[in-house]
Design brief:
Blueprint: E1 10-11, E2 23-30, E3 41-46, E4 54-57, E5 59-60, H1 86-105, H2 108-116, E6 127-131, H3 137-144, E7 148-152, H4 156-166, E8 169-171, H5 175-178, E9 185-191, H6 200-210, E10 211-222, H7 227-232, E11 246-247, H8 250-260, E12 263-270, H9 275-287, H10 301-320, E13 327-333
Parallel strand pairs: 6-7, 6-9, 7-8, 9-10
Antiparallel strand pairs: 1-5, 2-3, 3-4, 4-11, 10-13, 12-13
Helix pairs in contact: 1-10, 6-8, 9-10
């Protein structure tokens, strides 16, 4: 049973939570379009030209934010379609097959493999920590590559799944509270996790401390300046209130890493594999939410077909301007 967001303690940030700069209202009266949190939410944008993050306001209090994740997808091993829509299933199969051919012709299959392993597949395996490891799916991939893996997952149910799946040590406290050994890890990864933190600077400071010299931090996150956000506005799936607290672009992500002490920073857009982001955003735009997609449903044929054209447009735009990527990944070295 869902718990009302209005019963959760919240914290207001009229000034930017990262830099303290002045802000403006971007979107108001947003609802949880994906899972079951009730309430209305707003997003604000920092006006500091050196920052420009978007952030949720108000934000759930630290000790109650878990209530926003009661039915989160990390609890599931896989989605199974309960509502059979033959035309949608046929449309998806055809579009997926065609996109696979197109991505292969454009050289994006190789890129998809690169990002699947966070660009670390050529590194010599060492000690790896995944922050926000969910049910352990990605952690298991790295273990199979020979990495000595550990994970952090505050959701105890998901953490237990990750432990059973990988046999690895899975911590359930935040990295700031764990007091991990300094210079311990060769790599730390965060896959669509940094946007869930209220104080990401503290997280990256701790990542810097526990990484070995020449160790690598890799993180991927939605790009608030990308094509998806510009195309869909308030209907952009990656806003995902109330779980996405701070959204970044190339500039703000770089500043975050520099503030923590990292150097040799590289940021790349992820061009391949954008169907889901476009498809869910189109469903939100046409129906008001996409909750049915996480409860055994499937998108309309119209949304599925349009997502193919959005992907092709995304490819075209990112070739001209990489900052238009829907997702951005950052590699930085201690």
């Amino acid at each position: 049973m869902s718990e009302n967001i209005n019963q959760i303690a919240v914290e207001n940030f009229e000034k930017c939570p990262l830099c303290g700069g002045e802000t403006i209202l971007l979107y108001s009266d947003l609802e949880d379009r994906v899972f079951e949190a009730n309430g209305k939410f707003t997003f604000r944008k920092c006006l500091n030209p050196d920052c420009t993050v978007w952030y949720l306001n108000p934000m759930p209090a630290d000790d109650e934010i878990y209530k926003c994740y009661k039915t989160y997808y990390t609890h599931d091993e896989q989605k199974k379609y309960k509502t059979i829509r033959p035309l949608s299933l046929l449309t998806r199969a055809i579009c997926k097959s065609n996109m696979s051919i197109i991505e292969k012709c454009l050289g994006l299959k190789k890129e998809l493999h690169f990002f699947r392993y966070m660009g670390l597949q050529q590194n010599n395996p060492g000690k790896l920590l995944e922050i926000g490891c969910g049910n352990g799916k990605k952690l298991l991939m790295f273990k199979e590559l020979g990495w000595d893996v550990e994970g952090i997952e505050p959701d105890k149910h998901a953490a237990e799944m990750a432990k059973n799946k990988t046999g690895a040590v899975i911590y359930t406290d935040s990295i700031e509270k764990l007091n991990l050994e300094a210079d311990k890890y060769d790599a730390i990864i965060m896959h669509h996790v940094v946007e869930h933190f209220k104080y990401p600077t503290r997280i990256l400071n701790e990542c810097f401390r526990v990484l070995k010299k020449k160790g690598t931090l890799v993180l991927g996150t939605p790009n608030c300046d990308g094509y998806g956000s510009k195309k869909f506005g308030a209907d952009w799936f990656a806003l995902e209130p109330p779980r996405h607290l701070i959204l970044f672009n190339n500039k703000s992500l770089t500043k975050l890493a520099l503030t923590a002490g990292f150097r040799e920073i590289i940021i790349k857009p992820k061009i391949s594999g954008q169907r889901w982001l476009f498809e869910t955003s189109e469903e939100i735009s046409s129906k008001g939410d996409c909750k049915h997609l996480y409860h055994g449903g499937i998108s309309s044929p119209k949304s599925i077909i349009k997502s193919v054209f959005y992907q092709l447009k995304h490819y075209q735009l990112t070739q001209a301007d990489p900052a238009m990527g829907n997702e951005i990944y950052m590699w930085c070295t201690k």
